[in-house]
């Protein structure tokens, strides 16, 4: 499908026109950034038509719609992706060539809209791509943060956080929709008033502060199907315009407060991954976008439907972790206070409309709000939660008479806290984990009591990724090669990629496949030279760990092993050693001191290793600055080895693991998260698995019996590695890495020594790494393994995940555009 507008000549004309219209310039005079804007407007022109058509089709066919509620959408750049999904990428590239322009350079002008932290936010973005591609009606609902994820600079080996003003040049793909603005209320108190109309009492929220929520819509283009869905992110504005000539002091104060409230709410994304900050502003953000989104969804429903009791037939709300869980009580509030339903009717509708996805079992990530804060900020919503809790506790008592332990463990309100996961489970009609192992751990451990009481709610939806961004766009050489061999069906049906299996023993195919990998490695090497000033050998093994920095993900294990290899090469210079480049990329939450120290350690080790001429370049260590979606696409394409080394049981799923696999990099990993399912698909002989199992880890955690000092005292080489953290090898300041050293050997407050079992897994990790080296030396064997990884990645498309959500949870209808 090539749209009229993408006929080359028309496209070229349109870009020139836009440059003239927007900047009063000729093409030759325009900057690359201006040309980027002009190209986007041309593309947007096409998208807008499809967007209108889609919304018309939805109006006519009235399908059920999913509202995917998420504090985070980590979209990555839109231009390239939109061109890919419009199947116009190649035509546009050629047209721009003819104008003397380079599409890659133009794509590089776009800021990454980084409105998310990591996996959870990126999953939401992949889901939107799949929903549109599979012809489902869907909205993403989120926040238009003024500042998304910070930009990371590395200075002197330390992470520096720089604000990312992604909107400073204007974002061409967004559309402000003031006509759909909604009011959101904070603070104040609740009055009980007699309502003569109904003869009963009603609850009236008074004395609140109000904020105007204004939606910005971004188009979500389906692949080659003319569907354009919407990501709706909310901006905040004061309700009362700030008037300098206001003489009324009360008004003046109120105006200033409302202005500040509005400005603060959407100012910045909390940069924590798998950690709950507990800040009042965070709860304000949550309620702000949830309330606005629910109001908009209900208003839309009421336009064409009379009976609010049937809301669940047309609408479902998926809560991306507990962050939007206040939706449960807000929906109850709207149904009762605004739509006039009684409690039982409102509850019946709500519990058919909301569903919950859990993304973590890490205790510090579970959201619990102090009752004092919650009830002060959201008095009416809190009142409703109290009533939900009261009724639920009665249910517990009925089911488990006299068992107060159950109440203690399951109540929504307990110990002065509001437990958001409990609220989500009690109200949700579905509770899902994000990989098989994760869901099993939820059922057997973390949420055991809930599973026993309501087993029918629990289900698994193993995560997935979109092959359109992470292969078709990110690795165009491999995408073309795949299409040449098996046709283009894999683009919308990734199960087809298994057809590559017939080529895995074909020498010509092996050579072509590895040659593409090599070219991608050259591209990454060039990027590393430009951005890090480090020269790396594209013939070396590219061993990559890119993901958020967190202790449970164990970047520390990886770098300790690098130190170990360095020691080995120094001690035995004659030893056979295949050149290796260890590549890291990771942002640490700004307040997470130990994570930042690990970044410093990686860079300190890199300094020493990369500058030690005696090891003859056998070992290189690179820390890629500012890891984000746009450079991720290039990194996955260039990886030989995928490091997925979390402490078993801690990584709910992982999705980077799937992106590496699709791009032909075998997994070096623990039996954690979706790694387990990757091994199921590709076979354990085509992965490098090591370490404690989830059961073993959980057993140690529950029963004790792990002492890292036993390993430290008996393993000389491990002891040597640890000693080098504090003896000046990597920093003249011997105290610099003391905390890391101590964390591995000493218990600290409530924290166990080596709580992520790094020393426990060290030897089996090193052995697995040795196997990687041996396997890589066998060129044909490696090519076969790499190709099998690509060929077996079919399960891990987000298209499959979304279809499972549709079949088991949402029950959406497909819509086709004529
Ligand atoms: O969600 C991640 C998990 O750690 C991954 O295993 C999983 O693959 C992915 C998608 O299901 N969780 C995650 O990214 N969490 C957060 O980013 C997060 C952000 C804020 C917060 C808690 C968690 N308060």
Strand and helix layout:
Layout: H1 8-23, H2 32-61, E1 65-69, E2 73-74, H3 79-85, H4 89-98, H5 103-107, E3 114-115, H6 119-133, E4 138-143, E5 151-155, E6 158-162, E7 175-176, E8 182-186, E9 189-195, E10 200-206, E11 209-221, E12 228-238, H7 249-265, H8 280-304, H9 311-314, E13 315-320, H10 327-338, H11 343-353, E14 354-357, E15 368-370, H12 371-377, H13 379-399, H14 404-410, E16 413-414, E17 417-419, H15 420-427, E18 431-433, H16 436-446, H17 448-453, E19 458-460, H18 467-473, H19 476-486, H20 507-532, E20 541-546, H21 555-571, E21 580-585, H22 593-610, E22 619-624, H23 629-638, E23 641-644, H24 656-662, E24 667-669, H25 675-682, E25 688-689, H26 694-703, H27 708-714, H28 716-726, H29 738-745, H30 758-777, H31 779-791, H32 798-810
Parallel strand pairs: 1-4, 1-13, 4-12, 13-14, 14-18, 18-19, 20-21, 20-23, 21-22, 23-24, 24-25
Antiparallel strand pairs: 2-3, 5-6, 7-11, 8-11, 9-10, 11-12, 15-17, 16-17
The protein binds ligand NBX.
Keywords: Carbohydrate metabolism, Glycosyltransferase, Pyridoxal phosphate, Transferase
Cofactor: pyridoxal 5'-phosphate
EC number: 2.4.1.1
Tell me the number of strands. 25
The CATH homologous superfamily of the largest domain is termed: Glycogen Phosphorylase B
**β-strand amount:** 5-15%
Q: Helical amount among residues, as a percent range?
A: 40-55%
Write down the overall mean pLDDT: 97
Number of domains: 3
- Give a list of the ligands: ligand NBX
Termini gap: 13 Å
Poorly predicted spans: none
Rounded radius of gyration (Å)? 27 Å
Structural class: alpha/beta
**In CATH, what is the class of the largest domain?**
Alpha Beta
Main sheet attributes: strand count, strand direction, barrel closure: 10 strands, mixed
Shape: globular
CATH fold name of the largest domain, please?
Rossmann fold
Going by CATH, the architecture of the largest domain would be: 3-Layer(aba) Sandwich
Helix count from the secondary structure assignment: 32
